[in-house]
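Example record used in the benchmark description.
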Amino acid sequence: MTAKTHPPKIQNQEAWSNATQPKAVKSKATKAKKPRQSQEDIAANQFLKSFFKPYKNRLNLARACDVIMVLLLMVQAWILVLIFDGWLLPFLPQFANHDAMATSLLPVYLAALIGVMALRAFVAYIKDVQLSRVGVHAAARARSLLLAKLGEMGLARRFFGSDGALASKIIDEPEHLVGYARFEVQKTTAVLTPILLAICIAFFNGIAALILLMTAPLVPIFMALIGVATSRKSREQMDAMAQLGGRFFDWIRGINTLSRVGAVDIAVSDIANSSENYRKKTMAVLRIAFLNSAVLEFFSALSIALVAVYLGFGLIGILPWRAGEVITNYGAALMILLLVPEFYAPLRRLGAEYHIKGQAVGAAKAMVAMLDFKQPQSGTKQLDITGAAGFELQKVAAFGEDGRIRLAPTTLSFAAGKSTLLRGESGSGKSTVLQILLGFSQYTGAIAIKDAAGCHDYHTLDLTYLRRQFGYLAQTPALLPISIADNLRLAKSDASEDELVDVLQAVGLWPLIKQLPAQMQTVLGERGSGLSGGQAHRLAIAQLLLQDAKVWLLDEPTEHLDADTAAAITALLFELSQDKTVIWISHEEGMEAKFDAVYQLGVSNENQ
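Model output (structure tokens):
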């Protein structure tokens, strides 16, 4: 083959960049005042509310259980008052003439007390079961959505961190949603329970009920003050955990290389620094949680003390405004004192659940960012490629999330059934071209795909459907820790044993695999461990053959291989890709003569 050099066409790059690049910096004078609750917090809260909407009936059942438990609590307190007032008081000398309950009724009251307590425990069990099931199901559903979105993103997942960080966000962080269901129910309980108890207490003493209602608002006011800080600190802690997981994963993956170059100490130091950062973030979250609990306990203890002092002074008749007058009897005072701690208990529990809600909001921020990630606008036309396919790119450009130019305006032509080498400096946009063709990257300009049936505008096509007809091979083969046969069937789920043997023979792997005890049922390790670098690449090429894609996109497939293995894989790829449209990215020298066309990105002159 004769090499033909076709540099990309770039016109008025500087003017185009200045006109279209997003503005990332605003002047301090025009910068809007930052709201107390960020847009991320608002979006996260809206996401949580909508995410838990399908569980509305179960949550309402849990709320009903709380109301039932409050009513049972009142009955339980009244039975205790009857036992105390009717049976215990006559044993005290000063109350010898008290109207006593008949001793024969004591077993009845005790049995009723035990029955009410057992019924409360049963209702609490039903509530806990419902909330646990809702939380676990919600976390599993969140993982499922995130995994599906991750598969849809493809190469665009790099915007959300390393593989280790993504694993933490998808596997670990949804666990924080488990407790959010309890917070939703506790919000209602924290309102209904105090109201019901205040009504009951007001029946015995209005002033005591008024004291409780005046002090109760202090709890939600304090929680509102610390709510934003809790969410922010929780998100920082999760980010630190994701960073720690990502760094540990990356260092462990390269441990063999680190050992060879004597850089293990650097990895240990880096992991230690990340661990210390995570410790600090965790302690910051705990500091807020303990402060929250301490203040809530202080307010509730203070309020209970006020009611107790009021009732105590009223019983002995020394209240300043009602001197010498007994304002209540011992039975009523005991009833009130039994209910007062329960008046504040839901508010204290809400404080604890509010901390959990802050963690859920922090986790939801990352979920919203991933789930709201917009793929490039895609049409609805499903194209089945007929024959060989070629591509025409007219002034195609792409930006990064930070506004950086990832691909300057470029015009390229990839002939159908021909092989094209794409070269260029790092950052010139070689991989971006492949991502655009795969439908994983936003772009400006026009792209057309040509096959035997005609020319089709990329904007009108369903890119997800089209992508299935492309074969893609990166620097590191995407092999999973499953059997060799299952890895191959990722490319074609209904492939027969004979088809698998045929593609393995085509790539020269069948003689090796045939000698293994389990042959194609041999299970690979993480990232294809158990195979050498060349064998892993051959298996990945076998996947391409099984897929029978008409377009092969190769992103430096021999980058990390030794010279002999790279040469063998290169020869194999050329042999097996005859009559296919091949777009090959490579930095290797001396390959130009093997291709029908060669493009050098970053050179500003006309295509030839």
